[in-house]
Structures are given as structure tokens and as C-alpha cells.
Amino acid sequence: MWTNVRWKPPILAFLGVMWGVLAFGQKDTLGFWDTPDTLHKGRFWAATGTGIVVYTGAVISLNELWYTEYPRTSFHFFNDIKEWQQMDKAGHMFTSYFESDWTYHLARWTGMNRKSSIWTGALVAVGLQTTLEVLDGFSSEWGFSPYDFAFNVAGAGMWAGQQAGWNEQRIRMKMSTTHLTYPQEPIMGVPGGTTTLMERTDDLFGENLLQTFLKDYNAQTIWMSVNIHSFLKEESRFPKWLNIAAGYSGENMFGGFENKWEEGPNTFQTSDLEYPRYRQFILSPDIDLTKINVKSKPLKTLLGMLNIFKFPAPALIINGKGGVEWDWWYY
Question: Which of 74, 276, 281, 322 is 20 to 30 Å from the Cα of 56, by its Cα?
């Protein structure tokens, strides 16, 4: 049974939009990677049309592949603020943040002015995420989460506030994830039967690297990456590309609210002593890929898109069990 692990599907739609625009953008004397001074109607309609097609296809696919598996109900709300150690909320904020950023740059590419592009970026991001929340609202498995919506708005607002005030992102939201291997020792159920954490996590988070990248909250870390130089004087010798990142993650989560679940007639539960649910707070250096001086415009665009990922680096980890750890290569 799939659970409330679903905040990243719009990533796939965004990749489709970007691919479509790159493939079908109007060609003329203006260089493809150049930003026009005024609205370029060919680019605008290419971007808008591709976006509508991909968005519609993504919603239909998501509805058929996901929501049709569960009964529909009347629209209702769902309080999920205590689920997943709030990792899903951090994920919602991250997703709307980077969707705002990508949409903004796409709008600027069409020639929209800066103010209109900022509004477009933030509103498109909130709109994409709200679509997901509305579908949840009609599903018996979930419901419309006001907290998800609030974090969606917060992510877009964090991006828009910086872009409007500083015309740059001095504090970037990023993510990192790794592929975890879970234990295969048998867990006894009540009244009988056995399972393993490997089977449980395969059901929750998927079995391949892409699925776990998108859905495994135990493997993900959400970051606030601060560009130090942007807060200093321009003549400062502090490296422009070097950031300091603060991360948040959760550990040992095998259910939304608790590590207890049902499979058929059996109920399974993990030991709180062996698998305690806890949070982690991480400090680590990072690289702002947009601050790397490259001459190639296509490469610069690619680095900007990849800048949503935290760079692997040493990290100081403070966990919710009262411990402090050092990891030489945290990702």
C-alpha cells in the first residue's frame, strides 16, 4: 500500500516542460540561450503550450496510476502535521521553491519582465502543488492538508521574497538523498506471520534507485544553503561559490505517524529501542553552482538546474538522541 509519500511527482512534469521548450522553442536570429529584451511571442507560446500539455498529461497520469486505486469521497481535510517527522513538509517547501525558480528563469527566457516573471514563478509553483492537494482532498486515503498547502506557499514565498528584494537567491533550498539498504531479519506479526523491514520499505518507498530517491524520507535531507559572499562587501575575498548549508532529516520512519502497520490480518510493529524515530540537524559546506564562472550558456543553464542538489561534503550531525557525529562524506 502506498502512503503519503508523494511530494515530488511535479518534478517529472517540470522536466517534461523544460524538454519540450528546448525542443520546440522558436528559432530566429535571437540566440536560443539569449534573453530577449521584450516579450518574445514565439517563445512565450511555445513555453505555455508545452507546459499546458505536459501538465494535463501529468495530472491525468497521476490520477489514473495513483488515485484510482482508492475510493473517492466528498472533499475533506486531513491533519498530517505529525507525519514523517515533518520531512514531507520540508519536501513540499523545497519542491515549490525550486519550481518557482525554474519557472522564473523560463519566463525570463520568453522575455517577460522581472516583476511578472517573479509572480509567474511563485503562482505556477503554488498552482502545481495545489492540484495535488485538491486530488488528495477527494481521496479516502488522504485529504486536503492545510499544512502541505502552507508549506507550498512558504517555499514559493521564500523564493519570491529573495528574488524581489535581492534579485538573487542568497539562501537556497536544496536536497540530497542516498540509497539505503534495510534489514531482512524477520519481524513477527500479530496474530501471526512474518515480514521484514526490506519488504516494508519496498512497499512504502519503492524498490529501485529512482523510486527511493523520490519517496524514501529516511534517505532524504532537505537543506538551507546560505551563500556567505552575498552578505559581504563585493570586494571580499571569501569565495563566491562557497556556501554553508543547514540540513534536516528523519531516521527510522516505517509509517507516517508510527512504526506500526497492517498487512492483511497481521499487525507489525518495530521496537522503539532498536529503531527509534528521531530527527537530525546537519551542518555542511556546499557549492553554489550558479556562482561558478562559466562562459558556456548551455552549461550555465544546466548548472542552474542542478543547483537544487546539495554537493556531497563533510558534515557535523546533531541527532535527536542527544548525540553528535562527524561524517567525512555526507549526501
Answer: 74
